[in-house]
Specification:
Elements: H1 2-20, H2 26-29, H3 31-36, E1 38-42, E2 53-54, E3 57-58, H4 69-72, H5 77-81, H6 94-103, E4 108-114, H7 131-135, H8 141-151, E5 155-160, H9 176-179, H10 184-204, E6 211-214, H11 227-240, E7 245-246, E8 262-263, E9 278-282, H12 300-311, E10 315-321, H13 331-347, E11 367-374, E12 377-384, E13 392-396, E14 404-409, E15 412-415, E16 418-421, E17 424-428, E18 439-446, E19 464-466, E20 479-481, E21 490-493, E22 497-505, E23 509-519, E24 525-531, E25 534-540, E26 545-549, E27 553-556, E28 559-568, E29 572-580, E30 588-596
Parallel strand pairs: 1-4, 1-10, 4-5, 5-6, 6-7, 8-9, 9-10
Antiparallel strand pairs: 2-3, 11-12, 12-18, 13-17, 14-15, 14-18, 16-17, 19-30, 20-21, 21-30, 22-29, 23-28, 23-30, 24-25, 24-29, 26-27
The structure holds alpha-D-glucopyranose (GLC).
Length: about 600
């Protein structure tokens, strides 16, 4: 009874103080992070020594997350702590990790101070279950890492598993959904006795801490953690290190006072431009902790595209390495980091301090766009994943004319010729790409930039694909279906209605209009496509099936029909509409209208 009252008092005070202290200067505080864009995650702990294998058996989960081995493979505490003996302390040198991060062009390091296994990797006074004591070395890897970060000008953050703790008798693991072992009161003992004191150690003994990165990916209301407990954490951090950032996986949305940035799901890249600060934590293979059985590594291009794609949507990328229990960074990780670092040392101006343009996120089939203000100019960086064979890069969506266009090459910047017409910029390219991973073309503009986010973007080689993704007037009348592996993305048109696109015609002349569709009804469906006062009509027949693989895999056939030819009297913007007269229960599945003058 006494205990309960004390607990409620404690919680009550913490709510009051957090609310009183809502931090208003968050955007200033988080600026270094939104400028940095690229950081290193390090998963390193007792689990690293298991290497994803326990007594000859692989990890009992297809996601390969080797840092989960104690829980997944039901390992006892006594046996698990024996892993400390496998560490090769003569070889372990955290400065190597810092040098590797620098070489990779990363601006911060985030290390797993305590993962879900509950074993601190520093010399914690709060619990003897820590790597320094278990290994008998008394070495404090975090002290060494903090010193190396300071020496090399690298920001340092700590991952701290607050919700899950498999070592503490009152901590939480998923299985308690079945066993219900720990009560709220016991859990609070863990919170007050381990979480808060350990965070205090981390925020007191290691100099400036750039961020504490928490890891609860479910809504706190669905599990044992209480809002008041999370508020206590925010309060403690603000008290000890007001500049320290806190990620949303603490258990609150990004908008909650005290949360500095949103962390997406593991390896979940951005899909839309988002105003508030955010990042994705990503792996090079699948596991975070070292896993000897990994063999599916992402390519350097893929990783660079993850970084670039996020930056183009105002986000960042925290890329993980899982060093071994001798400190070594696996070769596959190292080579990718080195390649990314080489790319960034050449093309870094298109990443650091950059964000994205407010255009449709992936409207160009050649790559992505990043941007920043620089010396009174607006820089726009075209991130070219695929070097066009016809040597023309087609950019849509910027109405301003660039002052100059330059390709970044190993030998420096090379000026490129370009033409501007309406929302189209056509850049003449040399034969050789600027880079073997991603080539960057830097466009310089006077400010402010005039954008056109409505007009349909040109495809590589020219031509316009009018789809459910680039309508100029949004419609909720028709359901959108994404590409499902065999059927293309499409709009299901199941009632009468009008779809509208805005296009730009660069020169007067004849342009064909083709329609790619599946007609899911028994009878033909009449359609009308208009451009200004010109009308084209067609009757679209039922389409049936197509064989995907013999002998039993069929799917819905999409066909491509010429509807007719428009004669545009002059260059300029035009509105194109599609009107379908769908009968009751009839469905026309629209993949695209293709407008082309070839
Ligand atoms: C998770 C996992 C974990 C990993 C982390 C990184 O949610 O539980 O093992 O540390 O995400 O994003």
């Amino acid at each position: 009874m006494m205990k309960r009252t004390l607990l409620s008092l404690l919680l009550f005070f913490s709510i009051c103080t957090v609310n009183a202290q809502q931090v208003s200067n968050d955007s200033e505080k988080v600026k270094w992070f939104t400028d940095a864009r690229f950081g290193m995650f390090i998963h390193w702990g007792l689990y690293s020594a298991a290497e994803g294998i326990w007594k000859g058996e692989r990890l009992r989960n297809g996601n390969n997350y080797a840092e989960w081995i104690r829980y997944r493979n039901r390992i006892s505490e006594e046996e698990y702590v024996q892993l400390a003996k496998r560490f090769d302390w003569d070889k372990i040198n955290p400065e190597q990790w810092v040098l590797q991060a620098k070489k990779a062009g990363m601006k911060y390091i985030l290390i797993t101070a305590k993962h879900h296994d509950g074993i601190a990797i520093w010399n914690s006074k709060v619990s003897d279950n820590n790597l320094s004591k278990l290994s008998g070395t008394n070495r404090d890897v975090l002290k060494e890492l903090a010193a190396a970060c300071k020496k090399h000008g690298m920001k340092l953050g700590f991952y701290y598993s607050h919700w899950l703790d498999w070592e503490h008798p009152d901590g939480w693991d998923h299985n308690q959904e079945i066993t219900g072992r720990v009560t709220d009161e016991q859990y609070n003992k863990y919170w007050q006795g381990k979480v808060l004191p350990q965070l205090r150690e981390l925020l007191t003994n290691y100099g400036d801490i750039a961020m504490i990165w928490f890891d609860m990916w479910v809504d706190y209301k669905t599990t044992i953690v209480k809002k008041e407990q999370l508020d206590q954490v925010i309060k403690l951090i603000h008290e000890l290190q007001p500049a320290c950032l806190i990620n949303s996986r603490l258990g609150f949305p990004a908008s909650y006072p005290g949360i500095s940035f949103e962390t997406m799901g593991d390896n979940q890249l951005g899909a839309a431009y988002t105003d508030h600060p955010w990042e994705t934590s990503g792996t090079i293979a699948n596991s975070w902790g070292y896993n000897a059985l990994e063999n599916e590594y992402k390519s350097t291009s893929q990783l660079l595209q993850s970084l670039i794609g996020n930056v183009s949507l105002n986000g960042g990328f925290t890329l993980n390495i899982g060093p071994r229990a001798n400190g070594d960074v696996p070769y596959e990780d190292k080579t990718r980091l080195d390649d990314m670092g080489a790319w960034l040392s050449k093309n870094g101006e298109s990443i650091y301090g950059c964000t994205g343009l407010q255009l449709r996120p992936d409207q160009h089939d050649w790559g992505r766009i990043t941007t920043k203000k620089l010396d009174g100019k607006q820089m726009v960086y075209l991130q070219v994943y695929n070097w066009p064979l016809d040597k023309v890069l087609r950019l849509t969506g910027i109405l301003s004319k660039p002052e100059k266009a330059e390709l970044i090459t190993d030998a420096g910047k090379v000026a490129l010729n370009f033409t501007q017409s309406g929302p189209y910029t056509h850049i003449q390219l040399p034969d050789a790409a600027g880079d073997h991973f991603v080539s960057v073309i830097a466009l310089q503009y006077a400010q402010p930039l005039a954008l056109d986010e409505k007009t349909v973007a040109e495809s590589t080689f020219g031509g316009l694909a009018l789809t459910g993704d680039n309508l100029s007037e949004k419609t909720s009348a028709y359901k959108k279906k994404a590409f499902d592996g065999v059927r293309p993305s499409h709009l299901i048109i199941n009632n009468d209605g009008l779809l509208t696109w805005q296009v730009y015609v660069p020169a007067a002349g004849a342009y064909n209009a083709d329609i790619s569709y599946h007609n899911n009804s028994k009878t033909a469906t009449p359609v009308k496509i208009t451009a200004g006062d010109q009308n084209l009509s067609a009757s679209l027949k039922p389409t049936g099936k197509v064989v995907v693989e013999p002998h039993d895999s069929y799917t819905d056939e999409f066909v491509n029909d010429r509807v007719g030819t428009f004669n545009f009297p002059k260059e300029g913007f035009y509105k194109i509409t599609l009107k379908a007269d769908s009968k009751e229960q009839a469905e026309l599945w629209l993949n695209r209208i293709w407008i082309n003058n070839k």
